[in-house]
Amino acid sequence: MRTILFDPANGAAGDMIIGALLDAGADEPLVTRAMASVVGEPVITKVKRRGITATYIQTRAGVGTRTLKEVLDCVSMAEAPDKAKEMAERVFHRIHDAEARVHGDHPHFHEVGADDAIADVVGACTALLSLSPDRISVLPVPLGMGTINSAHGKMPVPAPATAYILQDSGLTVRPSLEETGELTTPTGAALLAEFLSSFGEEAPADGTITSIGYGAGTRDPPDRPNILRVMMLESGGPGVWVDILETNIDDADGEVIAATIARLHREGARDASASPLIMKKGRPGHLIRVICRQEDSERLALILAEELGTLGVRCIPSVHRFIADRRFIRVRLSEGDEIGVKIGSWKGKILTVKAEFDAVVAAAVRQGRPIREVKWEAEEAARKELTRWS
């Protein structure tokens, strides 16, 4: 069982959440591509916050406002997984509903309607899902104290919209006893609320810490490290328990099967596949197999019945699934391009070193070189980097 534990002791904002998840091992090439499709490629750097090294995200977006429809249109066009975009849309609905309660019927977002906020939300949802969590836990969220300047003038901390988001979230909050300014932004509160709603349990789960990440905020106050911490916990042995769903079909065409597999992935399946087989009377058919969390079995079996018309779905329950540890590093090629490389390991032993293919193709085109040469160079650079670390 993989739990992601958020520790927002010093607050939460969209950029801090992305930075912490990337620092903990989220898929950096995937996240970068998703954010770049909204506002341009983000700048990802390592910074110090009161002596603690953390990952800092800069989106370089301009200031502006958008309607909810305009925001959702931007999200829908992002180059991100469908499930991440659906989660991002729910985040913005949370923010919109909170702003409506504060201001009444209003046509535009303000601070959270700018391109950087859209990129932050899409990037954070993509980063979270790339880590394949089974549960989310969130420690108490600080409210902050003092005032901030907003589009509506000077406001008390937490901002009114943030307070409503937290009220509806199920998150535990804690008051601040001294002047801190804004610690938790509307975007940060809405992201944590959606993560908890989608995956989880607020109370921390027992487990072994496998990874820790720190995300930096923009400010660097003298009295506290402006960081958000994420910890990855593994429990229940070196893997997770899953169910396997299977059904045989001989009367669905390829387009329907493809669409069904895509929907199963969007609805939370760990994996879904179709294999050709020969059925009774020599008819060609397909075996549809779905790997899923145990709590999702019944819901995904119903999707199989709805989409494929099958009248029976076999369930192989409680199968133990071993999962290799995954992390991502970036390497610089001889021609200057940076490529993300996925590292797979088991109990400290490196199993796979695989360059992010889309980035390899783009670099090969820019450099006028064969794809396989660029791929080899990136993976070899990653192996050398890993050797220096060991």
TrEMBL record:
Domain of life (superkingdom): Archaea
Keyword Lyase: yes
GO function term, MF aspect, one: nickel cation binding
Keyword vocabulary terms for this entry: Lyase, Nickel
Lyase keyword on record: yes
InterPro entries for the chain: Ni_insertion
Pfam families assigned to the protein according to its UniProt record, in alphabetical order: Ni_insertion
NCBIfam families for this protein: nickel pincer cofactor biosynthesis protein LarC
Family: Belongs to the LarC family.
Listed PANTHER family: NICKEL INSERTION PROTEIN-RELATED, PYRIDINIUM-3,5-BISTHIOCARBOXYLIC ACID MONONUCLEOTIDE NICKEL INSERTION PROTEIN
Protein name: Putative nickel insertion protein
